[in-house]
Each structure stands twice: as C-alpha cells, then as structure tokens.
Amino acid sequence: MKQFQFNDFPNVKGSRVSLRQIMDADIPDLIEISFYDAVQAETVEQAAEMQARIDRDYLDGNSIHWGIVDNETLQIVGTCGYYRGLDQGEGELGCVLLPQYYGQGYMTDGMSLAIDFGLNTIGLKRIWAATSRENGPAMKLLERLHFVKIADLSYGEIEYELTQPK
User: Fold this and answer.
1) Are the CB atoms for 1 and 87 separated by under 8 Å?
2) Which residues, other chains included, contact 1 with Cβ-Cβ below 8 Å and sequence gap of 6+?
3) In the beta sheet, which residues pair with residue 81?
4) What domains can be seen in the chain, in order of their start residue?
5) Closest Cα to residue 59, out of 121, 8, 113?
6) What is the distance between the alpha carbons of residues 155 and 163, in angstroms, rounded to a whole number?
7) What is the pLDDT along the chain (166 residues), one digit of tens a residue?
8) Residues near 119 by beta carbon (within 8 Å), at least 6 away in sequence
9) Counting Cβ atoms within 10 Å, is residue 84 exposed (0-12), middle (13-18) or buried (19+)?
10) Fewest CB atoms less than 10 Å from the CB: which of 24, 105, 130, 157?
C-alpha cells in the first residue's frame, strides 16, 4: 500500500546540502556506497541494477532514497533515505557517506533534512535506525540527531529511535 504519493521526486533544499534523486550519471561515483538488501555493488552494472530496484521501491511507495549533495560543489557526498516501515506510518532511516567526506558534517546535515521531511511531509509517526555495535561514528551521529538506543539486536546491531527534542 502506498503511504505517500509525489508527482515529482521530492528534492529537499538545505543551506549547506540538498537531497535529490540519484541519476544514472551519478552511479559510477557511488559504487562503493551502493547497497541493496545489505549487499554491496562491485561494478557499475550492479550499482545500476540496485538503483533500478531502489527506484522501483520508491514508485511502489515503499522507500525514498536521496543523494546528499554539497550545495557549493554540487558533488554527491553520500546517500540517505527511508527503507522500511512506510506502509505502517514509520520509517527506518539509513545513510552511507563516501569516505573522503567523513567528519565534515555532511551526514548530520543530510539526515536532518531527511528527518524533517519524514516528520513534516510524509507524516511519519516513528523514525528508527540500526547500526552495527562497532560503528562508533554512526552511533554518535544518531545520538547527535536525538535518537536513543532502544534495543541490542541479536545479529550484532543496535536499534535507535528518534525522540523529539523538548
């Protein structure tokens, strides 16, 4: 069941970064961060196939996946989006950053835009995220964005849930 319907793919403009649809021309630059069902692409062809599946998921109303773009350079620095739960008015928020952009605040800015979009445009009632216990930077990112740990999952991951700042 479709939970949201947009005539045009929703691009989200922020002051430092923007979220936009990933285009075919972007795919060669995103191979190392192209994933679908926890499988990483190894070739441009695999990344393109994964992106086609992601695009189909969007058209079916099951997910939304953006490229995070530096507004000054217009380079895609990473990706983020909602990948599960939309049919229940919830969203699992995920993200991946190209290594050369680590530690520069891009993911904080991109995820903040995605959170605002999820809450205020899609109308999500719950946003959650999961990361591995070994991914300290992701845990710090989630905590900075007002997520709190809610569960230790059996397969080496931790689940976080967004709390609204008071």
Assistant:
1) yes
2) 61, 87
3) 65, 94
4) 12-162 (3.40.630.30)
5) 8
6) 24
7) 455 566 789 999 999 999 999 999 999 999 999 998 888 999 999 999 999 999 999 988 889 999 999 999 999 999 999 998 888 999 999 999 999 999 999 999 999 999 999 999 999 999 999 999 999 999 999 999 999 999 998 888 999 999 875 4
8) 127
9) middle
10) 24
The Cα–Cα gap between 156 and 153 comes to 6
Using alpha carbons, select from 25, 6, 21, 12 the residue that is nearest to residue 110: 12
Q: φ and ψ at 38, to 5 degrees?
A: 65, 15
Token output for 131: 């990361």
Position 53, amino acid: R
**Cβ proximity of 111 and 93 under 8 Å:** yes
State the Cα–Cα distance between residues 103 and 47, nearest whole angstrom.
25
Contacts of 31 (CB under 8 A, 6+ apart): 41, 42, 43, 44, 46, 47
**Which residue carries 């680590």 as its tokens?**
102
Q: d(Cα 77, Cα 75) in Å, to the nearest integer?
A: 6
Residue the block writes with tokens 């773009």: 69
User: Could you tell me the two tokens for 110?
Assistant: 């991109």
pTM (predicted TM-score):
0.92
